[in-house]
């Protein structure tokens, strides 16, 4: 006989004539990617998804919603995947698998800058280009053997474009820094 304090065993669940429907949802891909990569270098994008799923990396220009496939991989039995892609310019990316998409992320490359080759002393010169969307952009001037900050702005959050104007006084070399990467160096010749 069972002791008085013991609970009676629960009867097994009887579904009767009802059908049991088990709904499984595929996970949203989780992604790890570098924020910035030097121009022409390989970025390793990894993450987790459903096991044995084809994972597609799609890219679009900053500010655009037109994504195109740039690479794909198949996740392993644990759902891990790695995609390697050469970075030639700053783009927005998304990882998609089985109808689910990751959050949009961007991988920046070296910022670009365009400057006039010549300028008039004590007049403003406009520097413009493209860098990592939403990130600080630092314009530097070389004085002797050292670089010094001349101005700082933030790149547009969607397009990555930026513009900065400074007043020039002498011929000098300039560069732009963003996310630890540097643009090419440009010389601005100043005349009277």
Write structural notes for this entry.
The structure is a single chain. The protein is mostly beta strands and 192 residues long. It has no helices and 16 strands. Strands 9, 11, 12, 14, 15 and 16 form a 6-stranded mixed β-sheet that branches. Strands 3, 4, 6, 7 and 8 form a 5-stranded antiparallel β-sheet that branches. β14 and β15 form a beta hairpin. Residues 1-11 have low confidence and may be disordered.
What is the subunit organization of this protein? single chain
Mind describing the biggest β-sheet? 6 strands, mixed
Q: Total helix count? A: 0
* Strand residue content: over 45%
End-to-end C-alpha gap = 110 Å
Overall pLDDT level: 85
What value does the Rg take, in angstroms?
27 Å
Global morphology: elongated
Produce a short descriptive summary.
With 192 residues, the protein is mainly beta. It has strands at residues 30-32, 42-48, 54-60, 68-74, 80-86, 91-97, 100-101, 105-107, 118-120, 124-130, 136-143, 146-154, 161-167, 172-178, 181-182, 186-191. The strands form 4 sheets. Strands 9, 11, 12, 14, 15 and 16 form a 6-stranded mixed sheet that branches.
